[in-house]
Amino acid sequence: MADGPLIVQSDRTVLLEVAHPDAESARHELAIFAELERAPEHIHTYRITRLGLWNARAAGHTAEDMLGTLDRWTRFPVPPSVAIDIRETVGRYGRLVIERDTVAGSDEPALVLRSTDAAVLAEVTKNKRIQPLLVGHPSPDTYVIDAWARGQIKQELLKIGWPAEDFAGYTPGTPHPIDLAEQDWHLRPYQRQAVDAFTDGGSGVVVLPCGAGKTLVGAGAMADTKTTTLILVTNTVSARQWRDELLKRTSLTPEEIGEYSGQAKEVKPVTIATYQILTAKRKGQYAHLALLDALDWGLIVYDEVHLLPAPVFKLTADLQARRRLGLTATLVREDGREGDVFSLIGPKRFDAPWKEIESQGFISPAACYEVRVDLPAGERLEYAAAADDERYRLAATAPAKIGVVKDLVARHAGEQTLVIGQYLDQIDEIARALDAPQITGATPVDEREELYRGFREGKIPVLVVSKVANFSVDLPEASVAIQVSGSFGSRQEEAQRLGRLLRPKQSGNTASFYTLIARDTVDQDFAQNRQRFLAEQGYSYTILDADKLAA
Fold first, then answer.
1. CA distances from 381 to 202, 230, 391 (A)
2. What share of the chain in percent tops pLDDT 90?
3. What sequence ranges are listed for the domain Helicase C-terminal (predicted)?
4. How far is Cα 370 from Cα 374, in angstroms, rounded to an integer?
5. What's the rounded Cα separation, in Å, for the pair 302 and 292?
């Protein structure tokens, strides 16, 4: 305990001294159950939350494991109230279970809620939002759940602080032979562990950095379950990359894989659909809901689960009898619906820290920089006079950033460079200034794939992209990213954009990630969110002055 890097406080916050020699080790262990809240230069603040503790418990960590982490790295004794709180909160997970069992008066096994703790069962079953979901009380320790309410009751139980473990099992789906084609490659050890953790748990989320091969974890889960599979992805480009990877890495043939998107409507034993098509409405109704029952799916894979659109949660509440695998680089959702991911997709089953996988050589090391750009007097005055809702756009699209982008591209001449922005007029301007091709939402899918291919093959050294490139785009030789504007400092975006660089490089070079910030504006305030995400993953930010770059 002497002189550790952590200070545990009675309000469930934990302070981490960044410069301490043991800070990295402590951060990796702490991140399993605590969420990073603030990350300035010297002291990072974590918070121990109920959901964080329950996710850790579901992934196999006990209360004693978590307290052991705090005791091992703390500078002062852990406050007794925090230790009691952690034990009691973790102890709530699994006190209620959902099972299938035969009950009197029914030939079919029913969905039941059980507890060995009579007081807990009495408390939750008297809740006004839970009572309507229960349709019978055949024994003192058992309540029958309405057949349709498996997802909803888990959501309601989580809200009142009593998360249920779901042991009600899954439909096997229609069997379909799927094997990994591992002649000249093998799942990496952490990918195998992730697949095993998911298979043992039945449903849940695997958290791995971009570039760490989440698609292969999905393929491994499919090979383990050997059943018809529905894969939900963010966009059509991502759908085609999943298809290509499955054809390359598994025994599946093109005839067995269907694409269900704006361009095609194929339903096959393995069907890849976009979230957009699933949530499309016609005359106020979801037009493609039939896809969810088109086949007897035994597995549903949710790619980039942190981006799952809100309507899909509602649809997923009705899919609780099917195995569900969520894949993501971060459990953080900008809409705060992490609890719905826990209840409806499933709890976290596996989480490997970025720095750990980097140290094993599976993703590239990255150096992260924040470049602060001074606005000229005229632009500064325009910014000062603007309405609040205009200020971010003015700061993010400041023309002064264009010269800095040119300096950085020149500095990294010969390296594959991505320039990433949010605003289309800014992307146009930068593409013209660099004489580089651009990809936006308006770029046809075929042209996008052509440009991505040219970039991957090194024929296109600089590519300017809008946020369409954030998700599921495989650009393995990108070694420099220059972010000129983003979605108000979204941590989701930081995960995706840094992930563009973290795929292993043939050259072995360290990747460089630059964020351009207009000094003394809301742009700089929003950048703190980004710093927090990188600190969460164990990366530090170096702050550079734009004026000194060209020197």
1. 58, 53, 11
2. 46
3. 404-550
4. 13
5. 13
Question: What is the spatial distance between Cα 337 and Cα 313, in angstroms, rounded to a whole number?
Answer: 10
What is the amino acid identity at position 342?
A: F
Long-range interactions of 64-72: CB distance < 8 A, separation 24+: 66/32, 66/33, 66/90, 69/26, 69/29, 69/30, 69/32, 69/33, 70/6, 70/8, 70/14, 70/30, 71/1, 72/1, 72/4, 72/26, 72/29
Tell me the average pLDDT of the chain: 86
pLDDT (0 to 100) of residue 329: 78
CA distance 137 to 117: 15
**Torsion 410-411-413-416 (CA) sign:** negative
The H-assigned helical ranges of 254-316 are 275-279, 310-316
Q: Would you state the pLDDT for residue 488?
A: 47
Angle ∠(28,347,33) on CA atoms, nearest 5: 25
Give per-residue pLDDT as tens, 31-66: 889 988 777 668 888 999 999 999 999 988 999 999
State the first-to-last Cα distance of the chain, in angstroms, to the nearest integer.
Answer: 47
The SS3 of residue 353 is coil
Please, which residues have CB within 8 angstroms of residue 222's CB and are 6 or more apart in sequence?
178, 229, 246, 250, 270, 299, 301
| Structure confidence at residue 505 (pLDDT) | 63
Identify the DSSP state of 40: -
Backbone angles phi, psi at 494, to 5 degrees: -60, -40
Q: Of 358, 382, 375, 368, whose CA–CA distance to 481 is shortest?
A: 368
Q: Using one digit for the tens of pLDDT, what is the confidence trace for 376-433?
A: 998 889 888 888 878 888 888 899 999 999 999 999 998 889 898 888 899 999 999 9
Q: Are 209 and 331 in contact (CB under 8 A)?
A: no
